[in-house]
Design a protein that fits this description.
With about 140 residues, this protein is an alpha+beta fold. It has three helices and seven strands, in the order H-H-E-E-H-E-E-E-E-E. It is globular.
Length: about 140
């Protein structure tokens, strides 16, 4: 099955260039939150980004960035292996895991989560549109 006209990819299969870029952006995203570089994180995001945490709470880009700036979240090193990366048109789905020790609202937590990150291609670059994090146990 071929993709959209002129795109050069097959539905559900990433081109090596797209896959490399998405993996790079995932690294940049995790690096930005670990360093609490909120400006760098925001630059990676779509204005309508939402983040559903493993607790079930959902933040918009504005509320999540605000919590990062206020120190609500403090991330230790984050291990984030990618298990599968799928491209559907201008949307990339990154299925993986996130393992980290964090402080959230003053409470220490050990995260062992399955994750889904959704990236959307824009005119400038890919932008993070959504994140869903689910505990593995």
């Amino acid at each position: 099955m071929s993709g959209a006209s002129g795109t050069g990819y097959i539905w559900g299969v990433t081109s090596s260039e797209d896959e490399q870029r998405i993996r790079q952006l995932e690294d940049e995203r995790y690096d930005a939150v670990t360093r609490l570089d909120v400006d760098a994180f925001e630059a990676l995001c779509h204005v309508d980004m939402f983040y559903t945490h493993s607790s079930g709470l959902t933040d918009s880009l504005g509320t999540y960035a605000g919590k990062l700036r206020a120190g609500y979240y403090t991330y230790g090193p984050i291990e984030h292996p990618v298990d599968r990366l799928v491209l559907h048109g201008d949307v990339a789905l990154v299925l993986g895991r996130m393992n980290a020790d964090i402080i959230a609202g003053g409470n220490e937590k050990r995260l062992r989560n399955n994750t889904l990150a959704v990236w959307q291609r824009s005119a400038q670059d890919w932008k993070l549109l959504a994140v869903q994090s689910t505990p593995t146990s």
